[in-house]
C-alpha cells in the first residue's frame, strides 16, 4: 500500500466516523424532541396530571443543566467523551423503557415518571456536553463548519417536525408507546457511537502546569474565566444570551396576545410559529455556503443589524402590523438564529483549546439556559406593564444582538477558521 493509499484510507475512515457521529447525534436530537412531547402526554393521558404536575415535569427536565452543567463540563475535560456519551445513551434508553413497561403492567405512577425525567435529564447533561466537546476531536478544523451545519440542520428539522410527529404518534398509538420508540432510538444512538473507530485525544493537563490534578471547583472557575476573558467567546455569550432572552419572552407571550387579544385560532398561531421554524432551518442550511462566499464576520454583523428593525414588529402585531408581515419578520429573525447556531458554534470551537472544551461548553450552556429562564420570567411582568410592553423589551433584546459582535474581533474574521 502506497502512502497515498494510506492517506485515502484514513480520510475514508474519518468520513465514516463523522457519518456515525452525525447519525448518533441526530437520533438523540429527535429522541429529545419526542420525549419532551410524550412525557407530559403520558402524565396527562395516563396519570391524569394537571397543569401543576406537567409544569413540575418540565422543570425537572431542565433543572439538571442548571445544577450540573458546570461540574460535568469540568469533569468531561478529564476523561474521554465518547464512552461517557455511550453510557448516557444507554441510561436514557433503560430509564425511558421503564415507563411503557410500568404502564403496560398497570404500575406507572407520577413519582416514577418524575424519577425517569430526572435520570434522563442528568444523562442528557453528560451526553450533550460530551457531544459538543467530542466533535472537535473527531473533525478537522477546516470541516468543523460543515459538521456543525449538518447538526444544526438536524436540530432545526427536529424542532419543527419532532413535536407534531410525536403528537400524531401518541394519538395513533399511545404516549407510552412513543416513549418505547424513543428508548429504542437512544439505544440505536449508543450503537452508532460504539462503531466510531477514530481516535480521541488523551485527556491531559495544560502543558504549562504540572503536579496532581486540581479539585473540580478551581477547574470550573478556570473555564468560566476563560469564557469571559476571551473576546470571541464573550461576544458569543452576550449575543446568544440576548437572543435567548428575546426569543423566550416572545414565544411565551405570543400565544397570549394572539389567542386572547387578537382572536387568532390555534391553526393561525401554528402557521406563525411554523414560519419561524422554516426560517431557522433555512439559516442552518445556508450558513456554511454564505460564509464561504462572503466575509464571515461581516455576514454575522450585518445580519444582526438587518433583523433589528424586524424584531420591533412583534410588539405591534395586529396594531398596526398585519399578521403576515410579523410572520415574515419572525421567519427572518429565526433565520438568523439558525445561521448563528452554525457560525457562532464554529467560532467558539475554533478559539477554545481542547483541554477547556467541555468547560467552555458547560459554562455557555448554563448561562444560555439562565437567559431562557430570564426571558420566561420577564414575560411574567406582562400583568404589570402589559403584554406589548414586555414584547417591546424582548424586541429590543433581539435588536441589540449585533452590538457584541461589532465590539469583538469577530467583525474582522474573514472565514470560519479565522476567529482569533
Tell me about this structure.
There is one protein chain. With 420 residues, the protein is an all-alpha fold. Helix content is 80%, strand content 0%. The protein contains 15 helices and no strands. Helix 1 runs parallel beside helix 5, helix 2 crosses helix 7 and helix 9 packs across helix 11. The protein is globular, with a radius of gyration of 22 Å. The protein starts with a helix and ends in a 14-residue tail after the last helix. The relative contact order is 0.14.
Give a nutshell description of this structure.
This protein has 420 residues and is mostly helical.
Q: How much is the radius of gyration in Å?
A: 22 Å
- What is the element string, with H for helices and E for strands? HHHHHHHHHHHHHHH
User: What's the main sheet like?
Assistant: none
Helix content range? over 70%
Number of strands: 0
**What is the subunit organization of this protein?**
single chain
> Strand share of the residues?
under 5%
| N→C terminal distance | 39 Å
Basic shape:
globular
Low-pLDDT stretches are: 1-13
- What is the number of helical segments per DSSP (H or I, 4+ residues)? 15
**Could you say which structural class the secondary elements and strand pairing correspond to?**
mainly alpha
> What's the average pLDDT?
85
